[in-house]
Amino acid sequence: MTQAWSGKPREIARWYVLVIAGQSNAQGFGEALPPEADLQLSPRIKQLGRYRGVRPDGVYEDRWNKLLDAGHVLDHVQDLRFANLHGNQDLRRSGTVGPGTYIAQRLLRYLPDDAGILLLPQAHGGAGMTVGEPRRYRDPALCDLRTQPGASVGRAVYNYPNLPDTKRDGAMAWAGASAPLYLDMRQRIRFALESNPANRLLGMVWIQGESDANSGGLHADWHQASFTEMVDRLGTSLADLKAQFVSGDWQRLPWINVLATHWWDEWNPDHRKVMDGYRALARQRPEQMHFLDLRFQKNGEPEETNLMHYRDPHDIDYSCHSIPELTDGRTTAPDAIHIHWSSGAYRGTVSQRIAEALLTPMLVETSEPVRETTDLF
């Protein structure tokens, strides 16, 4: 069996940039509290920070385009750091759980000791290609130190000590050359690559389509074309940086198009239309587009969702200290809590299977021999 790199990490000389984009299941709405192991941060896994301005607790911060620690909750376009589990007093565990850091953890062992993974969090819960209010994009070069650059940021505050519950959406639509979500992603990829010529764009994890499918009609009809146009436009705009793609070619840079929970209904014509669009792209562009259906585990069982651990926080048996950890429907109405993966799924098979899909092009780039997937994790 091929051995991965080992030894004491050296100073990071280059970063493999991994974009995590789309809507809620890309951002991560896993509600259970992260265990202590999740709070142990790696110096070789960072994120490109986003937030600038005054937080709900009155603290000013400037995280914009800075390399920061990457934990269970990342700086996506929607800020979920203040979405606290009912009754939780350990604020290190605030925020929901998402996929990015766990994917990076699974890939890290296959990198040289002087390389790390830089996550670009680019998702907003509820966003669509053509569904949702676009809001605005602010050119970072024109922003002062009190103004949030990039796409309009949303924020959710739930059960956070001494703060009222609030929810505000930011930019919610991806389609079109002037869409703030698209412009934000383009700018941040460019920044991450131009900041160090040794950095490499590893790939794109794209979990998107629920809002367009659920709205149906023309939104479902337009989804594939809107997505394809966005991908091609992004490739053209980054063409001068192609030497920094792991493949050296935009048409071979891996897009992992993920189908999330078993909320997706094959018998719903609008759901099927969106799903079949991603399936068709995988057939048409096999070196670029990879369709990954994660509604079910490899054993055929549905992938775990927040529903598995849901308890009404007003019930007498509710405890935020229970094992397995409980969820309380803070991010989604209880009757829709099954639409999001659980935190356990993110740590487990979801991150594993996404990492498997990304691993082959990464190992080609680093000249490490490719293993059979059964030996990867």
Structural description of this entry:
The chain has helices at residues 24-27, 100-108, 180-194, 210-215, 218-237, 269-284, 343-366; strands at 14-22, 45-48, 52-54, 60-62, 67-69, 78-83, 115-123, 137-138, 150-151, 154-158, 166-168, 200-207, 255-259, 289-293. By secondary structure, the protein is an alpha/beta fold. It has a single domain (14-375), classed as 3-Layer(aba) Sandwich (Rossmann fold), CATH 3.40.50.1110. The strands form 4 sheets. It has a 7-stranded mixed β-sheet, with helices on both faces. Strands 6-10-11 form a 3-stranded mixed β-sheet, with no helix packed on it. Strands 3-4 form a two-stranded antiparallel sheet. Mean pLDDT is 92; it is low at 1-7 and 369-377.
Secondary structure elements and pairings:
Elements: E1 14-22, H1 24-27, E2 45-48, E3 52-54, E4 60-62, E5 67-69, E6 78-83, H2 100-108, E7 115-123, E8 137-138, E9 150-151, E10 154-158, E11 166-168, H3 180-194, E12 200-207, H4 210-215, H5 218-237, E13 255-259, H6 269-284, E14 289-293, H7 343-366
Parallel strand pairs: 1-7, 1-12, 2-7, 6-10, 12-13, 13-14
Antiparallel strand pairs: 2-5, 3-4, 8-9, 10-11
Rg: 20 Å
Order of helices and strands: EHEEEEEHEEEEEHEHHEHEH
CATH-derived architecture: 3-Layer(aba) Sandwich
Strand content: 15-25%
Number of domains: 1
* Main structural class: alpha/beta
**Quantity of strands, as a count:** 14
Approximate shape: globular
The CA-CA distance between the termini, in Å, is 12 Å
Under CATH at level 1, the class stands as Alpha Beta
What is the assembly state of the chains in this entry? single chain
Q: Roughly what is the average pLDDT, rounded to an integer?
A: 92
pLDDT under 50 segments (min length 5)? 1-7, 369-377
Write out the CATH superfamily name: SGNH hydrolase
